[in-house]
Amino acid sequence: MAVIPARSGILMLNGTINILLTLKTILMNLIERAKNILIKPKEEWAVISLETTSVAELCTKYLLILALIPALAQFIKFGLLGYSAPFIGHIGGSIPGGIRQAIISYVSTVAGAFISAFIIDALAPSFGSQKNFSRAFQLVVYSFTATMVVGIFVMIPGLSILTIVGLYGLYILYLGMSPMMLTPEDKLVGYFVVSLIVIIAVYVVLGLILTAMLFTGAVITGM
Length: 223
Description:
It is a single chain. By secondary structure, this protein is mainly alpha-helical. It has one domain. Helices cover 75% and strands 3% of the residues. The chain is built from nine helices and two strands. α2 (41-48) packs parallel to α8 and α8 crosses α9. The radius of gyration is 21 Å and the shape is globular. The chain starts with a helix and ends with a helix.
């Protein structure tokens, strides 16, 4: 009779080990890709352009994980450490406020990537480029890497200025347009500028909508 529980325990242990090994592989691949797209973006785009990564895989194994960095930083800043406001000074953190800011950051990043990719893909033919949502999604997500990584600095008052390094993502975006969307040279600058405007507009609009929804709800519920 004791054999069955022992066997179940072994199976459970093996299953846990397999899950941990899978997570380790995902994280190692994520770190390697993030490092390469930041350090040598031109060469990495050439590699990415030959891949057939699905939207679901890129989302679950890269975007959803990296987007946690700025979201957690927002929670720590607004929920625990507090922040400084002009003409007011230091404002203490609150857990509900931190959760709201984390949600705004996370949803804006993830939903913003999908919406931006959809619009950029729809505009592709207008700039002589290949219409392919999967590749447009790769373009946007990998371009977000710098912004998501440096988002950790937002929680440190003296280092929050370093979030400006996220603008490096614009350079990554520019380098990726030709290999990913097959954009001709004479259309590259125009497509890049329009794509940039799209990404900024989507992020701002999503942020405003989420802020209005969450803070209105907070006022109503007294949180």
